[in-house]
Specification:
Radius of gyration of chain B: 14 Å
Number of strands of chain B: 5
CATH topology of chain B: SH3 type barrels
Largest interface: A-B, 56 and 39 residues
Strand order of the largest sheet of chain A: 2-1-7-8-9
Number of domains of chain B: 1
Strand order of the largest sheet of chain B: 3-2-1-4-5
Helix content of chain A: 40-55%
Structural class of chain A: alpha/beta
CATH class of chain B: Mainly Beta
Structural class of chain B: alpha+beta
Shape of chain A: globular
Order of helices and strands of chain B: EEEEEHH
Distance between the termini of chain B: 26 Å
CATH class of the largest domain in chain A: Alpha Beta
CATH architecture of chain B: Roll
Number of helices of chain B: 2
Oligomer: heterodimer
């Protein structure tokens, strides 16, 4: 059972940390300034805080918490659209629980539910479809949210609805795609990153090939990582090894779940149902070209944006919110003047405080070790 | 939503629709297995397989020992409980009459 024990073995973690320390001691760059590694995925951010991984790493290694939390980057205007749909008397609005507390400009879905809208938290889009089957006289709308991880499940649900000829089901599609977003970060003038920990479950769908440009063009290493503490530590070690050896490659630490070629069936469903939007608005990051998808013309009758007239307004984030700078790794969460005062997990102003995968919420809940030490 | 949880396929419910029952930490629910079915893994052969489940869809096939271990760690940390609770609550929402 050697392979298994490795994942929970504290001694193994200690050994990995020692290996990381040795690598850092042997890397000239680390003597000049901290090495900044962005974990793209909110799931990793969550693990890093949950297991206290930042505190295990030498001070020369800084983890920067990236934009890979779909709840966190949802713009206020889209939440307003959700509320507008949900408050229609003919609608049952279904959503993952994560999205309930995201603030809109007037209210969150949670508040709209309290005000009487029929909003239901579902675990799966399949459950939303089942609600549609059981309520043929109501319009059932599923709030499609997430990166490539959840994109195929919404697509497969739409295909199932099509096969069954269900007409009272539609999707408010807010699925987003990671690669253009990574590109936007890499093109950002205040870029301050040396390497990436790549998203595990997005990669399970898209494979590792779509990241090649990060190594080839931008010369940054990336290691696709699993979510257990030893996975993350091992990935940090793999990244540092590349930096020390002057390499920039796309490596896969999470091969037990992520095939390099991705998931063919999932990609086929995605290709069939969606097309890229010209641009999509991200909270804190602004508009990013080709970073979101919508339903293809052939599935327009399942598209809530076409079915219902939506306000579809752009709503600016609260002026004092520093979500964008935090997302790009320019500042740490506690540098935001609202952090922990006006903006807390109970009453979030910025989206990064909403989800447990958001870096502000993670810092608030678990306390940034280096923050407490007073580091910048 | 993005974390996923390992479960074991225990029964094929509808081969054409790619629907199967999985056991997730003792809780059973129906999931879609379309993404783990291919030429090498026909529908009927999936029973007994451990898969990583995201929002009601089996998205990747993992080996049994690995799944049990991940589940154990997640259970210890209470996160599996949150996922299982979401599955239970959702079942109640599906059954609820229109308001």
């Amino acid at each position: 059972m050697k392979y298994i024990d490795e994942y929970r073995d504290r001694d193994k973690a200690a050994v990995l940390v020692k290996e990381i320390e040795a690598l850092v001691a042997d890397t000239p760059l680390a003597k000049e300034r901290p090495i900044n590694i962005m974990e793209v995925c909110g799931g990793h951010t969550h693990s890093i805080f949950r297991y206290g991984i930042e505190g295990m790493l030498p001070k020369e290694v800084e983890l920067v918490h990236g934009p890979g939390c779909p709840v966190c980057v949802l713009p206020m205007g889209r939440v307003d659209d959700c509320v507008a749909i949900a408050e229609r008397p003919d609608v049952i609005f279904t959503t993952f629980g994560d999205a309930m507390r995201v603030p809109g400009s007037k209210k969150s879905l949670m508040q709209a539910k309290a005000d009487g809208a029929d909003i239901r938290m579902v675990y799966s889009p399949m459950d939303a479809l089942e609600i549609a089957r059981k309520n043929p006289d109501r319009e059932v709308v599923f709030f499609g949210l997430g990166f490539e991880t959840t994109m195929p499940s919404t697509a497969l649900t739409v295909l199932q609805a099509e096969r069954e000829g269900i007409t009272n089901f539609s999707v408010f599609c807010n699925h987003i795609t990671i690669v253009p977003t990574l590109k936007a970060i890499l093109e950002s003038p205040d870029l301050n990153l040396d390497a990436f920990i790549g998203p595990g479950h997005v990669s399970m769908v898209i494979g590792t090939a779509p990241y090649e440009f990060i190594a080839n063009f931008y010369k940054k290493p990336m290691v696709v990582s699993g979510f257990e503490p030893l996975d993350v530590l091992q990935s940090v070690w793999m990244v540092l090894k590349q930096i020390k050896e002057g390499r920039a490659d796309i490596e896969n630490q999470y091969a037990r779940v992520v095939p390099d070629e991705g998931n063919k069936a999932a990609l086929e469903a995605v290709e069939k149902v969606y097309e890229l939007r010209d641009f999509f608005e991200w909270r804190g990051l602004g508009s990013i070209d080709h970073s979101g998808v919508k339903l293809r013309e052939a599935y327009a009758h399942f598209d809530a944006e076409r079915k219902f007239a939506l306000p579809n307004l752009q709503v600016a984030d609260p002026a004092a919110c520093q979500c964008g700078a935090v997302l790009k790794g320019v500042i740490k969460p506690w540098r935001c003047p609202l952090f922990g005062t006006a903006c807390t997990p109970e009453t979030p102003l910025g989206a990064l405080m909403v989800s447990s995968e958001g870096s502000c919420s993670a810092y608030y809940q678990y306390g940034g070790v280096k923050a407490q030490a007073g580091a910048a | 939503m993005c974390l996923g949880i390992p479960g074991r396929i225990v029964k094929i419910d509808d081969a054409a629709k790619r629907l199967a029952t999985v056991d997730v930490g003792g809780v059973k629910r129906q999931v879609n297995i379309a993404c783990v079915v291919d030429d090498a893994h026909p529908v009927e052969g999936c029973v007994g397989d451990w898969v990583l489940i995201h929002v009601g869809f089996a998205m990747s096939r993992i080996d049994e020992q690995e799944a049990a271990e991940t589940l154990k760690i997640l259970t210890e940390l209470g996160e599996a409980q949150a996922e299982i609770e979401a599955i239970r609550l959702s079942a109640a929402e599906v059954g609820r009459a229109a308001s």
